[in-house]
Amino acid sequence: MHRLYENNDIVVFWDSDKCYHAKRCVTGSPKTFDINRRPWIDMSLADNPEIWQTVSSCPSGALKCLYKHGIEVRMDEGSQRSVAYDGEVEIGECDYQRTDSGWVIVHTGVRPEYEGKGIAKRLVYKVIEAAERAHVGIEATCSYAVKVLKE
Ligand code: SF4
């Protein structure tokens, strides 16, 4: 299971397949990470340094975090894509197609001047999360998305 959690500044990625429940997150930032709550991660209850340091201490790699650099990523299921915005300007997208076996990610792209900020990963993760929430399969022909799915 892939999930994204965000506050104004940071996005946290969680891959449940990698988590081996060492609970270092729970002790590092108990208000943020509470396995008895749904959703179990709440990014509004601790400051960014505490969250960042806690995520960095996850021994399995199940948790990862990035600064958002003011870029918002949203789903646009009507257009079968996730979209990255700098203010009102579209600066990246991840396109998928619906097939009989699920969703297939066919393209991920970010404007060159925005590369190196983790935006492509956020775009792909957003689509994966949406597919999982919709209980449909997810595959990719886009080479970058294939890499994220195999991570
Ligand atoms: S620290 Fe990482 S491996 Fe341990 S419970 Fe938290 S997410 Fe899972």
Descriptive notes:
With 151 residues, this protein is an alpha+beta fold. The chain has two domains: 2-67, 2-Layer Sandwich (Alpha-Beta Plaits); 71-150, Aminopeptidase. Helix content is 25%, strand content 34%. It contains four helices and eight strands. The strands form two sheets. Strands 4-5-6-7-8 form a five-stranded mixed β-sheet, with helices on one face. It has a three-stranded antiparallel β-sheet with strand order 1-2-3, sandwiched between helices. Helix 3 crosses helix 4 (143-150). The longest helix is centred in the last third of the chain and has 15 residues, at 119-133. It is globular and about 40 Å long. It starts with a strand and ends with a helix. The mean pLDDT is 96. The site of iron/sulfur cluster has 12 residues, from helix 1. Residues 19-25, 58-60, 62-63 line the site of iron/sulfur cluster (SF4).
Main traits of this protein?
25% helix, globular, Aminopeptidase, 151 residues, 34% strand, alpha+beta
Quick overview of this protein structure:
The protein folds into 2 domains: 2-67, 2-Layer Sandwich (Alpha-Beta Plaits); 71-150, 3-Layer(aba) Sandwich (Aminopeptidase), CATH 3.40.630.30.
